[in-house]
Amino acid sequence: MGTAxxxxxxGTTGGCDGxxxxxxxxxxxxxxxxxTRADAADDAAHLPTVEPGPGxxxxxxxxxxxxxxxxxxxxxxxxxxxxxxxxxxxTMEKTPxxxxxxxxxxxxxxxxxxxxxxxxxxxxxTRAISDYTQTLSKNPxxxxxxxLAFKNLSTGLIDTSWSAVRIGIYAKHLDNWLQYxxxxxxxxxxxxxxxxxxxxxxxxxxxxxxxxxxxxxKHFYFNETKGFxxxxxxxxxSKPRCLGKSKGRPHxxxxxxxxxxxxxxxxxxxxxxxxxxxxxxGWD
Length: 284
Description:
By secondary structure, the protein is an alpha/beta fold. 29% of the residues lie in helices and 14% in strands. Helix 6 (170-177) runs parallel beside helix 9 (256-277).
């Protein structure tokens, strides 16, 4: 991202097709005309050129990305990867792994200290189970959830080296980011409220970016089958955008004592995260 209009989305919720991935997704949104075009962060010079049309969303998950990059070369290199941005639009870039990558804050700060950062978070226990569910769907032979979550089940010792557990220690990751960016550069979006009140959370996003509230409750309807809201155009005539087949899977049944131990483990980290952000996400 290049200028004051820059925005990165961090976190674990879906991109243009609902996929949760450590890959790049690009968005074009309307912004006040005085705002400038947002450009991508520096990336490796070997990446191919992508030329999506204006206002499109391009999934680059199949590209071999090296992120965070060294950020020592010209910003002109990755600009061809971004959708063409029209007057009155801003381009956003989203990669969940930024938030948990130690080097990311420094490199993004060196690129543009004016970048705005959107962090989408959910209950870390639910997030860990969801993470496991997705991995299980791809590899049914992996060990059980509790075998991966605990170093010693009898003592209740949690294995924080397992990424599904480690990612949910939000306070630790945020502390790394706050060494470079002030809290005012962040918007923390509740994953739970994004499901229960998508228009409300999107209203906060638009306010944070200085946008007119174009996306409202008339853009959403709740899909009872998936259990998630779908995005629609109020004038009709286009197919609603719902989560893909890989989303909304039923979670495996996890022993209640395992879930309770994870809640106890995360509680102090959650409390610290609430204090750091000034928001109570209601996970405890």
